[in-house]
Amino acid sequence: MTTLIAAKKSNAGASRTRGAAGWLGLAASPTFALMAWIAASDAPGIAICSPGSGMLPIDGMAWMYLLMSLFHLSPWLKLASVRS
User: Fold this and answer.
1) Neighbour count for residue 29 (Cβ, 10 Å)
2) What is the dihedral of CA 63, 66, 67, 69, to 10 degrees?
3) In 57-70, which positions are buried (b, 16+ CB within 10 angstroms) versus exposed (e)?
C-alpha cells in the first residue's frame, strides 16, 4: 500500500515538472524574439561605405536571437497542431 502511495506522489511530481517544462518551452521563442527586436533596435546605424554593410540593419546578436527564436518554435507548432 505504501508503494502505491509513493508511486502516486511520484507521478504527481512528474506531471508538475512536465507542466513547468512545457510553459518554459512556450516562453522561450517569444522571449528570444523580443531580445532580437531589442538588439536590432539598439544596433548602430550602418555606414554606407562600410565593407560589412548588408541588406538588414541588424548586428550579429540580433541574428543569433532571431535564430534561437526560430529553433525554439517547435512547442508552439506542436500546440497549434493539437488545437487544429
Assistant:
1) 19
2) 160
3) ebbeebeebbebbe
The predicted model scores a pTM of 0.61
**CA separation for the pair 26, 75 (Å, rounded):** 6
Angle at the Cα of 18 (from 13 to 24), degrees rounded to 5?
130
Residue 73 and residue 28: Cα distance in Å, rounded? 8
Nearest-5° Cα angle at 61, 38 to 46: 80
d(CA 25, CA 49): 42
The letter for the amino acid at 43 is A
pLDDT in tens, 27-73: 999 999 999 888 888 755 554 455 555 566 677 888 899 999 999 99
